[in-house]
Amino acid sequence: MRPPAVGNVEYKRGVDAGVINQGLFYLAWLMDHRAEFEHLVHGRLGATAASQVLWSGPRLICIAGDFTRYDVHAVREHRRSIDLVRYRLFGNDLLGLEAVASFSGGVQVSRRARRQTVARPTADVQGASMAELANAVDEVLLGLGDGVKRVERKTYRAYQRLRNFACLCPPQRSKVLVYLKVDPADVDLVPGFTRDVSGLGHHGTGDLEVQLRTPRDVERAQDLFQASYAAA
């Protein structure tokens, strides 16, 4: 049996710097209450396991909808070993986990983000492709500016500046829908790509529907994303 790992996992649904502060608080509490922790291990796993608990390398794992560059900088300045992990939900079938940053005593130990997608057996290859497309759209929208905030809603994901400027719906089997705060009258609508949905019921906010089926469509939509962001 391996010695029990000492650490803390903290989770938040959205973009919330509190996930780091709260996690550090609980980790500090754990380190200050070693006797209580070892007593718990003793009761659950036995005396041998309790005697093998290693306190030299505690780690904090923070899981949230996203992190800002300020979060990453704050973690870099901290002496603890901290992992920042971003999660994404794609409909009811896919859960994506992405390692944003990993630091040990302020030193980054993983410079390349690692992504892991966990799929239920019912998710087919095409569905996974649309999930990757939705992931690409998410990165583009978050990269429009430092002030972009992502908010998870029940039926869509909202991207805000001072107000919503884009809403990303869970990927469908063959396309991803994004609704933008752009006046359809100012756009040359292209069948199968852009659609005027003013007056039509749909999830999210925005009168311009953008239908994305390929990475090329995401590139085509860049100017529309930027225009909606600028107007927010």
From TrEMBL:
- Can you say what this protein is called? DUF5655 domain-containing protein
Question: What would be one Pfam family of this protein?
Answer: DUF5655
State the taxonomy lineage: Bacteria, Bacillati, Actinomycetota, Actinomycetes, Kitasatosporales
DUF5655 domain: which residues? 128-229
InterPro entries for the chain? DUF5655
